[in-house]
Amino acid sequence: MNTMEEYLNQLKAAFAEEDIEDFNELKEDLLEQLAICLEEGQTEEEVVARLAPPEEIAADYYADLSLDAAINAKTSVVPREEIQDVFIQTQKKRMQKFIKTVLKVLKPLVLLLLLALFTFFLIYTVRELYEEHNLARIPTILCLLLLAVILQLVKGWIIPKQKLINGLSIVFSGLGVVMLLFFSITGQLMYSGRQYYKEISLTSNHHAAFSFDSDADVEITSVEVSSTEKPSLMIKGRFKESDIKKIENGSYDNKINLTLDKENIFDTFTRTGRSEVIFFIPKDTILDDFHLGLSRGDLRLLDIQTKNFDLDLTAGDVYAKNIIADEGNVDSDYGDVIIEESAMNLKVNSVSGKTVITGMLGNLTIEGNKGLSILKFLRSDKVVLNNHSGRMILEDSETKKLKTTATDGQVIVKRTKGDLVMINESGKIVSEENKGTLELKNGSGPTIAIQESKVNANVSSESGFIKWLQDPSQSVEVVASTGTGELRNDFLDIPGSGKYKINVKSKTGDVKILEKVE
Fold this sequence. Notes:
Low-confidence stretches: none
Structural class: alpha/beta
Mean pLDDT: 87
Shape: elongated
Distance between the termini: 114 Å
């Protein structure tokens, strides 16, 4: 027998038909062994000559079957130690067989996954070369390393070229490692763009507008300049070549509309760092629109007059002062928002940051999740505060109508005049020295009211306790009741004037109407 094919034909003839599946597994092992030997430079004839005769291999196989039968028989003449040893060997063979089967199934799937990754990184590399004129270091390195692994996985299917494939794998993996070490040491693994500076001026103050969006980290400032100047924008920092091209080729008349550093999957290995943008707005210029949409940044905005004031910020802080607008909208997920001495109808949506608004004129709506809202010196027709689990404090303000709602947060209103409605499910309501009319509704949380002046009020609760502290020198009628809780009313026998009346009612909570003591 000079060829493996002849050897396998004789071996197959020695196996019974019902054992042909085991023969096929043995055949695959022998072919795999032949491939390895051929790769090492041996001839097929030399490999076949060293194999045991086919009849001997078949005899060993059937001897193992007989021993398995003896192990499983009801009576056995085989020594226990030999049975245990055969059992262990059998289990090892079964485990090896199982592992081989799993690898056969997983190998194509792993290969497909690696090919998909290689394709993505190759597209990434080509795209960055074309658009940014830059070699994408990390994707290029990953392409080389993945290619080396893929070649090793497919070399078993290309037996005549295995030496060449091994050589290519070594070259690709070596080149990838060298590039990784070099760019790591020199700090050039990530694409960082290039330093860039640009001033953009509008042609007229009439119907001027600014719109700027970015997913990079940006520091933004507005500066009031002389009324004789034109509105303009200064941009400075590191930018991608594609963004620089967008800025240079942009058309600017009475509006600057820029979108830079927009994140996508092909910017995974790009780090341009923080950039700076300054808006120069002439005094007394009324903009048609002022819009900022940022993922990260810090904003300091002063002395802006605009019809529409719109800020959309994911992470970062906002400080705004002397903003005059018809409509204002601020969305902030994780930053602090501070607005001082401004006039506009404002809507604020804050997830977890702090919101501070002082000295503002105009209607106000705040949607809060778990942050802190501090509001002072407001003059509004309508104030709406919706809070989930955070804390809202309103002080020293005047409004025709206030409505606050909360789930389990805290609502605190002090020294405020107007029709005040405070509703909570399980959090705390605090009302102190307010004027006008009060309506306090709570589910299971505490409700506390402190009054020195007279007021008309309706206070109700499901199960939370209610405490009302009233200046005894003020003649006010108090009607209090509770279903099953404790009741105390220090003003029970004090006649009211008829003009002011306080109604306090709880289904199951305690109610205490107490004299306010200095």
